[in-house]
Amino acid sequence: MPDLTYTELLYLACGAFLLTGVMVLWRRDLRAVIRLFALQGLALAAVIGVLAAHQGDLELALVGIGVGALRAGLLPYLMARALAAGGEDRETRPLVNVSASLVVAAALAMLAYAISRPLTELAPSPATRAVPVALTVLLVGFFVLVTRRRALSQVVGFLLMDNAITATAFLTTSGVPLVVELGVSLDVLLAILVLYVLTNRIRASFGGTDLDELRELHD
Amino acid sequence: MTGVAGVVLQVLLVAVGSPLLVGVMRQVRARLEGRAGAGLWQPWRDLRKLMRKQAITPAGTGWVFRAAPMVLAGTALVVAAVVPLVTTESPLDGVADLFAVTALLALGSVALALAGLDTGTAFGGMGASREVTVLALVEPTILVSVFALSIPAGSTNLGELVAAAEANWLSLLSPVTLLAAVALAIVSIAESGRIPVDNPATHLELTMIHEAMILEYAGPDLALIEWASAMRLTLLLGLLAGLFAPWGIATAGAGALGLLVAAIVVVVKVTVLGVALAAGEVFMAKLRLFRIPELLAGSFLMALLAVAASYFLV
Amino acid sequence: MRASELLVAAPAGVPLLAAAVYAVFGWTRRTAWLGAVAAALLLAAAVGLAVAVTGKPALTGCWGLLRVDALSAYMLIVIGAVALPAMLAGPGYLADRTGPRAAVLARRYGVFTQLFLAAMALAVLAASLGLVWVAVEATTIVTAFLVGHRHTRKATEAAWKYVVICSVGIGLALLGIVLLYFAALHAGLGEGEGLDLALLAERATALDPGVTRLAVLLLLLGFGTKAGLAPMHAWLPDAHSQAPAPVSALMSGVLLAVAFYAILRVKVVADQALGPQFTRVLLVAAALASLAVAAALLLAQRDFKRLLAYSSIEHMGLLALGAAVGGALALGAVLLHILGHGLAKSALFLGSGHIQRAAGNSRIESVRGLAARAPLLGGAFGVGLLALLGMPPFSLFASELGIARAGFGAGLGWVIVAAFALMLVIVAAVGRHALLMLLGRSSEPGDRTDRVDRGAIPLVAALGVCAVLGITLGPLGDLLGSAAAIATGVAP
């Protein structure tokens, strides 16, 4: 693949990755949030695919397909099922209102840029220059996790962080060793299954998935 | 010489074509909603009827009220001469700066808002306040996204931006351009008062913005405002098309044939965008007024991200 | 496969097999004691490994995925020593559960406790930092079901907070691992070996300081969350107070220590790449914050299981303090403290399970006059609290003394003084609660003392071991020395 095309395609995929990440902050409808998450999974798979095509690495391409299937297929499917089981599908009153959180996201992007300077300086290349994008999504995911009140929104926040970490791994080092990658994917899948079960339990015993209700344990 | 011819051509195109564009958009909406529609020429027929009426102004209004339509139409015409719709070789190239164009368009909006205040009616003031609120959120977004676009090209001159994009179309796929495109598209919709920010077809006091400001106008003044609004919409769509799909715009050295092709291409592009916008409006509800800042904050975020991306993704 | 490779895989493999048996046959009268047998085998394998690696090179197994050195072997002994009494208590805990879902819950309990043991063993066996991460996150997933075992509102709430906070924290550690791997690849390590703990420690000086600093910060934050260090401790009191007593014993006694083991491993690499000052500042901050949080929340504590949980935060703070001091003396004391705390805390959690069952809830005010109603249990509970507060002759006294001495030697006198001032507050708070529970006037006549007292047997045994360790290390001394040498980065 010619270098210029490679760079443009990589950045295009990274741009889609970033855009879907910040759009999660904007949408209140949880169904739309899940769709955005699935799109982000596709963007992540595209990032890996572009890297694989550039390096001519078949194994990396297969890993990319696996990552795409997990993050754009299975996980959104699970979340959609969890959502279908329960009534409320809107994030009605986040702790920080939507306009303010969008502005915060802009600040987080700057922070991510500052943090990732040493990474880019260690090995300047088109791929490492895109690391700030992944770190921005990480911080946005953390922000979603902290400020949103629905159980499912917190799960999405966690998964955004995980997507971002995976993206960082592939952008910096073309992926951690395969054993670790498999273990990590399995752990994430199981963690989501656990949260899925717990969401159902919360709904059964608290009558909703508003995490503000979780306040029986305190000192 | 082709520069002058191109500019004359594009001013004529905008002046004559913009009411037609509004006609097309209304017709598309009508057909999608299952109505027959009034035909493509209805906006021109409306303008003709309004022009024949007597010019009257409400008692108690001053020169601001009378000057506003002229300012609005004047700025729109100047922008039409400057923006690279048909050719990048405008003799006015020196002022074809994206910042200048934004400021000219904002000048028209402010004139109209002042006129709304000048009438002293409840609706006029309400519309003006809402318009200025939207404007205050739109302006920074435009400035920031223009800044983002200008970093790769190294210039804010519209002609150079378009020429650079035309020379290297792959750069259009970069996240910088895409983020800036989304941000500019959202603010263009807000600026031209379309759904989901404003609805040009209603006079509901709870929601109207643009219509509230021009409620007191009648006759030729109203015609001028309607015509200018149509031109502004056309210009914003043309600008978007030029910045993010620059193919076909005549550059230096293009002959008369090049100009003709460029004119046809720009008509097609703007029509396509207009039809898409109209079709989108059918399927979309207008946002509640307090959600509009959210939408605009989102576009501002995208513009900021575009700037950030233009720094680290080089 | 050679015998040594089999031995290396045994600590994780035996509990896995036991989990499979529980999954197939369920929790019956015949399989009920299998868990304890598996724990005993784990302990035996750990002792065997310890003999094999003390003063000798590390053993590897499973295609190089597992490696046992003295530090790993020591941690395996801790896991086995705490798991044995906890698993022995399991059948008693489940015996009085009845109802239609009791069989399902018991089977689940059997499977998940064994998987929990296997994951912890894997975490200390793993040769690669990535695999350590995978195993530590696996403990979160497995214990989530155990924390929410009782299906009550409180248990569900605790499980949710536990999974979300720990998964996010540990996610940061994963990012740290990715960045460390990035730095390692640019330091000349190959693709497959970039996360190998031994190779990383060997080549640490070649790592890029800027990237490593970021990576170490994230790793300490991430594993610190799992180790219950303030300010990422919020999940700990909830999870530990809601889990079944044997699980609380395991979580508090060893899971925190396993997470801390990961911090020790990271610290070896970080100290060589960045100098000791970087991790020292971070760990001192975490230590003092943990002690302060524990002291503040113990003062007005109303729940005795939460009291024990906050005490765990205190002891994790002490471990962080010892690790911050560094050096062979401090790290030896830290490792001894891990074992002593594991034994004492798990014994207390098991005892608290019996007290809770007798009292009907875990509020301190509903337990009065325990010493009179159940002399053995009450006495052992009291003595256990004394051990936890660092009184002689228990090993916690020796290890705290060691940390303090090393701290003054390393020029961290003011930190030690501050820490001990906070510990004085903790002693006063815990002592007051303990006196009320043990000697306070009872309003109702106790009649279930007989059953309650029987639960004190593992408590007494664990405290006995703890006291012996305080007097002499015996054969453990050599192992502790080798393990501390590895943790300081002196030995390979």
How would you explain this protein's 3D organization?
- The complex is a heterotrimer of chains A (219), B (314) and C (492).
- In chain A, helix 2 packs antiparallel against helix 3 (58-85) and helix 8 packs antiparallel against helix 9 (178-206).
- Chain A has one domain.
- Chain A has 219 residues and is mainly alpha-helical.
- The model of chain A has no long low-confidence stretch (mean pLDDT 87).
- Chain A is built from 9 helices and no strands.
- Helices cover 80% and strands 0% of the residues of chain A.
- In chain B, 70% of the residues lie in helices and 0% in strands.
- Chain B has helices at 2-32, 42-52, 63-82, 98-118, 122-153, 158-167, 175-191, 210-213, 219-244, 256-282, 292-312.
- Chain B is built from 11 helices and no strands.
- Chain B has one domain.
- Chain B has 314 residues and is mainly α.
- Chain C has 492 residues and is mainly α.
- Chain C has one domain (3-488).
- The mean pLDDT of chain C is 89.
- Classes of the chains: A mainly alpha (219), B mainly alpha (314), C mainly alpha (492).
- The interface between A and C is large, with 44 and 56 residues.
